[in-house]
Amino acid sequence: MEPVKILDEADLLAKAEARAGDHGLVSYEFAVPELDPLAVLETLDEPAPRGYFENPSRRRSHAAGAPVRQWRGRGEKRFADADVWLRAIDAELTCVGHRPRVIATFPFYPGTENEGAEARMFLPGWQVVSEEGVSTVTLVEPAGPGCAARLAVRADGFRRFSYRSTPPSPRAPVPTVLSEVGGAWFPSAVLRATELIKEGSFEKIVLSRAFDWRRSEPFSAYATLHRLRRGNPQCHTFLVDEDEGCLVGSTPETLLSLFDGAVRSESVAGTTRRGESASEDASLAEALLTSDKDRREHTAVTASILRRLRMVGVLAATSRNAELLRLGNVMHLRTPIEGTMPADRRFLEVAGELHPTPAVGGKPRALALPFIPGFEPHQRGLYTGAVGWVRSDGQSGKLFVALRCARLKGSSARAFAGAGIVAGSDPGAEATETEMKLRTILEALI
Known about the structure:
By secondary structure, the protein is an alpha+beta fold. The protein is built from twelve helices and 21 strands. It has helices at about 5-20, 35-45, 80-90, 145-160, 185-200, 220-230, 280-290, 290-310, 345-355, 365-370, 370-375, 425-440, and strands at about 25-30, 50-55, 60-75, 95, 100-105, 120-130, 135-140, 180, 205-215, 235-240, 245-250, 255-260, 260-275, 315-320, 325, 330-340, 360-365, 385-390, 395-400, 405-410, 410-420.
């Protein structure tokens, strides 16, 4: 966007204050000299809830905090309820510049009226977005006398923003043995899951493991994020807050992206390790591309996403051929999926249909998901949930699948990793896969 001249700012904000009257909210988006949103978040270091999302390879990052309005909810209608709240918030807004982004987090399980992790939406009081070196700030203030002056003062603070350097404490070595929640439950669970598949209970189920790491000094979420974004430039680095702590990670998977009517999702399923040499890496890649077990798993995920997109009316939903997604210590089969959003649908409506995909839950969804709590000895919370943001008008946004992550609280960290179990799955191979995935987050924790 074109920078607003400072001389015009007072007039623009005064007119917005007058239009808003004494009710609602005034939002102000403006350009600033280039900022690092993660460094801004770390410098301000505000209490939860916060939001942070970055794709280093595309030079896109977004930090947000200081909620002005919040919503929490549970249940099968949580996406629809969140969208009702979003419409109400948007109706309250008087905007100078683009409409603001709203941070969104939806746990893996919907929960019930009184139990389970809650979905959360919040309208930030401030947010910094940087895209290809261009930085903008969006501020929100309650409408009423004086809001224009308050916005102008806050805007000046971001134009003159000064980072505060806070080096983390020395990094502790990753322990050779972590405490697994539930002990050695996983191999027998994989065997039982394959038996259920043979019996026709479901086609696929995703089982996750949780590992605890406790140490004397607290973990640093910001330093961990910085290591994650440096070490995983192709992934989406993120921070979101739960009641039990903050979840930090670097996920390879986008649940849903919507910009200018273009819908994008992706199927990411099928995994192998990276090789220690170029020839071994190429051999492993070839084996993954031709693996019957991995191709079946991947095809099922792709077909499910396409079917659900078409169910909510996404036009011309199509996929390309599967390709290799090469990451630091693993590689996956990945299929990009694209379509066009119909005029009568909204972002959260489509997201609610997609979540959770078979890549993190199972297939068929209704048959596989009820079995997972009986296997897993831990609560997933936002792990494998949907995290990201949506524009206040509900017409654009981006949600990621919360993978390769750990929940941090003081000097405790709980890291998660899962594997898709299908016919032919081997307990030892699936355990090895989860341990490969764990390395991404464990090697970044500071």
